[in-house]
From TrEMBL:
It comes from Pieris macdunnoughi. The lineage of its organism: Eukaryota, Metazoa, Ecdysozoa, Arthropoda, Hexapoda. The keyword 4Fe-4S does not apply. This is Dynactin subunit 6. One of its GO terms (cellular component) is dynactin complex. Transmembrane segments: none annotated. Part of the dynactin complex that activates the molecular motor dynein for ultra-processive transport along microtubules. Belongs to the dynactin subunits 5/6 family. Dynactin subunit 6 subfamily. SUPFAM superfamilies: Trimeric LpxA-like enzymes. It is found in: Cytoplasm, Cytoskeleton. Gene3D superfamilies: Hexapeptide repeat proteins.
């Protein structure tokens, strides 16, 4: 499997994580040590301001109907993957502002909207779609609609991006924003 890891400026990515395949990590995203991200079914694009904590696993699984070129898995902005959670997906989109709590498991046949919470140790394996603002919790997998939107994690992201370089080796950003060329900014004569 070829590795094409793109880290945008502002992302904090620990060296001690496993990144395999074609992966793009958005600015402001924090990836802790011991995280595993595997793009076996196509590229994974992680948007801005996500937090992926220790021992979390994200896998873009191969589908039975392999498309050419393979469809990317897009993980929206402001998602939080807590310690030890696992997300396996064959679908092309995970919404924004979701929380995957500690040791939760989301199987390949589950679609996730925005503003959802998958509770600690909840295991979703049956084919289903979580509508926006769905909360699942408890050993019986109770379901309800969120009463309010999920809070922003910007303060935690700011704290982590300042503290983590003191304790961990980081991967450097390798994608730079393009500057307009001089020719395109000068008026035509």
């Amino acid at each position: 499997m070829s590795h094409n890891i793109k880290i945008l400026p502002g992302a904090t990515v620990c060296e001690d994580c496993t990144l395999e395949g074609d992966i793009t990590i958005g600015g402001g995203t924090v990836i802790h040590p011991r995280v595993t991200i595997i793009a076996e079914g196509g590229p994974i694009i992680i948007a801005e301001y996500c937090i992926i904590e220790e021992y979390s696993t994200i896998i873009h699984k191969k589908s039975d109907k392999q498309e050419n070129p393979p469809k990317a898995l897009f993980i929206g902005a402001h998602n939080v993957f807590e310690v030890g959670c696992r997300l396996e997906s064959i679908f092309g989109h995970i919404g924004e502002y979701n929380i995957f709590e500690c040791r939760s498991f989301v199987g390949a046949d589950v679609r996730i909207g925005s503003g959802c919470v998958v509770g600690a140790a909840c295991c979703l394996t049956a084919q289903q779609t979580l509508a926006d603002n769905t909360v699942i919790w408890g050993s019986q997998h109770h379901i309800r609609e969120a009463l309010e939107k999920q809070p922003s994690q910007l303060l935690q992201l700011d704290f982590l991006s300042k503290v983590m370089p003191n304790y961990h080796r980081l991967r450097k950003p390798n994608v730079h924003k393009r500057q307009p060329s001089r020719q395109s900014t000068e008026p035509a004569k």
